[in-house]
């Protein structure tokens, strides 16, 4: 980014423009004081305070992220990729997602946990969306659900909200529609930007408490953020969204190989774990582990 590019928000303690993302711990993050509720997210928008969201799929990461002050955890259908090893998010099922949601909700006391509804579990009808959401609330003990889609899914959002379940929308690049959208590409460039605005407004009117915008031009995301009362959560949607989300294994550098442009790696967990595994293997082969310290007599 050039030095004369205007920045709307002041320096983020975990972000900024330092060339080396690893190493320097951010300023001490205030712990979450109480259970995060959807009205707190709206209040942060009103105060102009951007907030972070991360995915979580298990107990240790959920606890670490809550303790790090992350107010909202998403049990994403990205678990298809990050947990189950599928090529896309399409194959993951409700029965595969539910135990992960339950693990995360069981592990936190303050963070708001959002369960991502997997492909095929809500699209058929508002009734199907309500039934699946109820399973995530009852069996997963989630606090909210997320579903992909714009105007055409306003009836689904309205029905789930009416059933008492807070809904987070998701527009722009919606990975469950990869084959319809023609691959992983930015959405809402040029004239289709108006469609995105209509999608965002329809979700807000249907009762959504927030909306994820994925791979959307920054200018469009900024305009939508200003037009909505509810918070926008960006992933590849520029700096002006009310919140930002990343998949945790991307953010922490556990995923290796090419990563999407919107990913910033704040650690090198792949490197750290590789070194740990190799050192363990060497020590076992040399019989230098275990020593007396790790042995019972
Ligand atoms: N680990 C992981 N991270 C994610 O962000 C993520 C998942 N998994 N699984 C579900 C979806 C899929 N997502 C994806 C996957 C790939 C691209 C991607 O390849 N983006 C390229 C192409 C952009 C373009 O051609 O315009 C990029 O460079 O950003 C983006 C989002 C986001 N979600
Ligand atoms: C990337 C986020 C927004 C998501 O939908 C997921 O992790 O599944
Ligand atoms: Mg998802």
From TrEMBL:
Q: Which UniProt keywords apply?
A: Cytoplasm, Magnesium, Metal-binding, Methyltransferase, Pantothenate biosynthesis, Transferase
Enzyme class per UniProt = transferase
Annotated region described as Disordered, given as residue ranges: 1-33
The signal peptide here is none
| UniProt remark on cofactor binding | Binds 1 Mg(2+) ion per subunit.
**Among the record's GO biological process terms, what is one?**
pantothenate biosynthetic process
User: From the Swiss-Prot or TrEMBL record, what is one GO molecular function term?
Assistant: 3-methyl-2-oxobutanoate hydroxymethyltransferase activity
Which residues are 3-methyl-2-oxobutanoate-binding? Answer: 77-78, 116, 146
- Gene symbol of the encoding locus: panB
Report what the protein is called: 3-methyl-2-oxobutanoate hydroxymethyltransferase
Compartment(s): Cytoplasm
Q: How does it assemble?
A: Homodecamer; pentamer of dimers.
């Amino acid at each position: 980014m050039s030095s004369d590019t205007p920045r709307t928000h002041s320096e983020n303690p975990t972000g900024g423009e330092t060339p080396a993302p690893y190493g320097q711990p951010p300023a001490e993050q205030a712990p979450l004081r109480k259970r995060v509720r959807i009205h707190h997210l709206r209040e942060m928008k009103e105060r102009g305070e951007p907030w972070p969201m991360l995915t979580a799929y298990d107990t240790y990461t959920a606890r670490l992220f809550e303790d790090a002050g992350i107010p909202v955890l998403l049990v994403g259908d990205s678990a298809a990729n990050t947990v189950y090893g599928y090529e896309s998010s399409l194959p993951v099922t409700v029965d595969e997602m539910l135990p992960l949601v339950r693990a995360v909700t069981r592990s936190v006391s303050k963070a708001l946990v959002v369960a991502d509804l997997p492909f095929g579990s809500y699209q058929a009808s508002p009734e199907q969306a309500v039934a699946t959401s109820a399973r995530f609330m009852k069996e997963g003990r989630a606090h909210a659900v997320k579903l992909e889609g714009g105007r055409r899914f306003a009836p689904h959002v309205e029905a789930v909200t009416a059933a008492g379940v807070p809904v987070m929308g998701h527009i722009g690049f919606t990975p469950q529609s990869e084959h319809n959208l023609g691959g992983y590409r930015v959405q809402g460039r040029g004239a289709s930007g108006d469609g995105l605005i209509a999608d965002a407004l329809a979700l807000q009117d249907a009762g959504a408490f927030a909306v994820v915008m994925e791979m959307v031009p920054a200018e469009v995301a900024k305009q939508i953020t200003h037009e909505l009362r509810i918070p926008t959560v960006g992933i590849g949607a520029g700096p002006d969204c009310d919140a930002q989300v990343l998949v945790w294994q991307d953010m922490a550098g556990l995923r290796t190989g090419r990563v999407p442009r919107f990913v910033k790696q704040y650690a090198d967990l792949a490197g750290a774990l590789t070194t740990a595994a190799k050192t363990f293997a060497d020590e076992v082969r040399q019989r230098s582990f275990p020593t007396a310290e790790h042995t019972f007599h």
